[in-house]
């Protein structure tokens, strides 16, 4: 009886002393990219869904960069700004969708057509980096 009580007591202490996981790191999912085929010089739109547990995703500063788009053909990183999505004075959970327009797609290897995928991640004001998501392929025709 004493052993089972001690086990239950220790289990309860361990359970309640564990640090609660916070959901402060933003998470994103790829919603899609369209169109899936373009002529050189045209644009595509990448759609992502986001969720941030403390709402500190986005910046009011016009010079801030907090969304990063990687052209996986050549590993070039393009920096974008997400405008502030929730008041600085509040810690609230936010969810939504973002569209990223990539203008003027070009073929980088001299071929008649080329496939490209893009990877995306975001960083909140506290410096927490989200997961990285990758788009499906878009074909660029010359």
Task: Tell me about this structure.
With 142 residues, the protein is mainly β. It has a single domain, classed as Immunoglobulin-like (Sandwich), CATH 2.60.40.650. The protein is 11% helix and 38% strand. The chain is built from one helix and ten strands. The protein has one helix at residues 2-17; strands spanning 27-34, 37-39, 44-52, 67-71, 76-80, 94-102, 113-116, 118-122, 133-134, 138-141. A four-stranded antiparallel sheet has the order 5-4-8-9, with no helix packed on it. Strands 1-3-6 form a three-stranded antiparallel sheet, with no helix packed on it. A hairpin with a 4-residue loop joins strand 4 and strand 5. The chain is elongated and about 50 Å long. Residues 2-21 have low confidence and may be disordered.
Write a concise keyword list for the protein shown above:
single chain, 142 residues, mainly beta, Immunoglobulin-like, four-stranded antiparallel sheet, three-stranded antiparallel sheet, 1 helix, 10 strands, 38% strand, elongated, disordered N terminus
Write the layout of secondary structure elements.
Blueprint: H1 2-17, E1 27-34, E2 37-39, E3 44-52, E4 67-71, E5 76-80, E6 94-102, E7 113-116, E8 118-122, E9 133-134, E10 138-141
Could you spell the SSE succession in H and E letters? HEEEEEEEEEE
How far apart are the termini? 79 Å
Tally of helical segments: 1
Describe the strand arrangement of the main beta sheet, using strand numbers. 5-4-8-9
**CATH-assigned fold name:** Immunoglobulin-like
The domain count comes to: 1
Main sheet properties:
4 strands, antiparallel
